[in-house]
Structure formats: C-alpha cells, structure tokens
Design a protein that fits this description.
Length: about 160
C-alpha cells in the first residue's frame, strides 16, 4: 500500500494526500474522474496551462493495518505546514464539522464511484442510515465494510489456491 500526495508543480506544494494499492492507476483515476471538488479544480486549472499535478509516493509498502494512521499523519503534517489540502477526510485529532460521512466522501475513501456505493448499500454490504434523503455513514461502517471485503478477498484467494 502507498500513501501518496498530489502536488501543484508550480508551487511544489502537496494539495492532496491519499492511499492506494496501485499508485499509477489511482493517479489516472484522479486525472480522469476525481470525486474531490478541490482536486477537480486544481487539475482543471493545471490543464489550462498544459501541465499535470505531480505524484509523490510519500510512503510505500505500508502495512494495511496502519495505512489509515499513516494517511492521517501526512494530512496532519501538510496541514501544519499551512498547505491547502483538498482532502475531505479530517484526521481524528481534528474535529470534523459533522459526525458522519456522506456518499461522495465514502466513494472517495474507498476509491469507488458513488453509483457503486449505492449498489453496496442496496446489497447490504455497506451499512449506513438515511437522514431525510441523504445517506450517512459512521467511520465504523466504512471500517466494517473494508474488513468484510478483505475477508472475502482472502477467502477467494484461498479457494482459488486449492483449484490447482
């Protein structure tokens, strides 16, 4: 797993911190269809100048058990440097404006489209609750989904290994 940053090549400043298992695929996703409004604005602004954001591997080969802790570390690090981060995830040490995540935030965290998040809700794989017309998710809902997805992937790998 990687902790990475997207930067503004004009200033050298990191503008976004994220995590991924496939660095270049995730970079391409940002360039093609980012769900983060701040990233979209930065990328569009740079495209007009015919340049792309820089991609920086802040850490590589990070154990999945501590990946979110490391991501929060880098968000806090660049926040202290008064960087203008476009991240929607606020480290636990800082108080979020709201207690719950919205669908677009969950999509960004999981690296999925909003449509896929709705499919996961419908299938019962991602828990949350509806407040009015909007879905809300606690951090534990997202963590539970990740744990279940990892267990399912491990089970599929185990089953696949016995097919030989």
């Amino acid at each position: 797993m990687y902790v990475y940053g997207l930067g503004d090549p004009r200033t050298g400043q990191i503008c976004y911190v994220g995590i991924t298992s496939n660095l270049y695929q995730r970079y391409a996703q940002h360039l093609l269809h980012s769900h983060n409004k701040g990233n979209i604005e930065l990328i569009d602004e740079l495209r007009v100048l015919d340049i792309l954001p820089t991609l920086v591997a802040l850490e590589k080969d990070v154990d999945e058990a501590i990946i979110y802790e490391r991501e929060r570390y880098w968000i806090e690090h660049y926040s202290q440097d008064e960087a203008t981060l476009t991240n929607r995830i606020v480290p636990k040490s800082q108080k979020r404006h709201e207690e719950y995540y919205m669908v677009d935030e969950v999509a960004m965290i999981l690296g999925l489209s909003e449509r896929t998040v709705f499919r996961l809700i419908k299938k019962g794989e991602l828990k949350g609750f509806k407040a009015g017309r909007e879905w809300r998710f606690e951090e534990s809902d997202i963590e539970d989904y990740i744990r279940q997805a990892r267990a399912k992937a491990e089970q599929e790998r185990t089953i696949g290994a016995t097919d030989f």
